[in-house]
Design brief:
The protein is mainly alpha-helical. It folds into two domains: 90 residues, Rna Polymerase Sigma Factor, Chain: A, CATH 1.10.1740; 67 residues, no CATH class. The chain contains seven helices and three strands, in the order H-H-H-H-H-H-H-E-E-E. The longest helix is centred in the N-terminal third of the chain and has 23 residues.
């Protein structure tokens, strides 16, 4: 070991047994080396956070430091593991886009010149998967929104039917009942 490494190792051994002043001397002696090493591995933008995390881990492990390697080598191996852990953690998390208007960004990503047939097919598939009662409520709710009617709807093709309303499943939409029977909604 070179004399500087011996000095750092001695500071680490003293810091594990002594007080906060000795820990501070040890950290000051190696702080620049650790920060430079972390900046090389992870980039300057993350260097300060990773350096702090390295020292937090090192302080927790300091009582177990036996001096079999130099203090600098021991600390830089902790720093390397901190950086690797950060990369692994980042790989597990999805990347969040910093967009204020995500909907227009998504629409701009669509290919130009295509019909919206994919949307029609997907919506039709979803509607057919709904139970009949919910499908009727949904379709009639859409018809009511278009015509300005919010609480009841008149079936198409009926001449002045008797339209009673009934609530279904607490969904808040009214389903028309024509002459005592539920009206069928054309789903095509």
């Amino acid at each position: 070991m070179r004399s500087d490494d011996e000095h750092v190792t001695m500071l680490a051994l003293v810091a594990r047994n002594e007080g906060p002043e000795d820990v501070e001397f040890f950290i000051r002696a190696v702080y620049t080396d650790v920060r430079r090493f972390v900046a090389y591995l992870a980039g300057a933008h993350q260097a300060e956070d990773l350096t702090q995390e390295t020292f937090l881990r090192a302080l927790g492990s300091l009582p177990g430091f036996a001096g079999r390697s130099s203090g600098r080598t021991w600390l830089l191996s902790i720093a390397r593991r901190v950086v690797v852990d950060r990369f692994r953690s980042a790989a597990r998390r999805p990347v969040v886009a910093d967009l204020t208007d995500w909907q227009s960004a998504a629409e701009n990503c669509r290919q130009r010149g295509l019909t919206e047939m994919e949307d029609v097919v997907a919506l039709t598939d979803l509607l057919h998967r709904l139970p009949l009662e919910r499908r009727e409520a949904f379709v009639l709710g859409l018809q009511g929104q278009r015509s300005g009617v919010t609480r009841s709807a008149q079936p198409i093709g009926e001449e002045r039917p008797k339209v009673d309303s009934c609530r279904h499943s607490g969904c808040g939409h009214e389903i028309p009942v024509v002459d005592g029977h539920r009206s069928e909604v054309n789903h095509d």
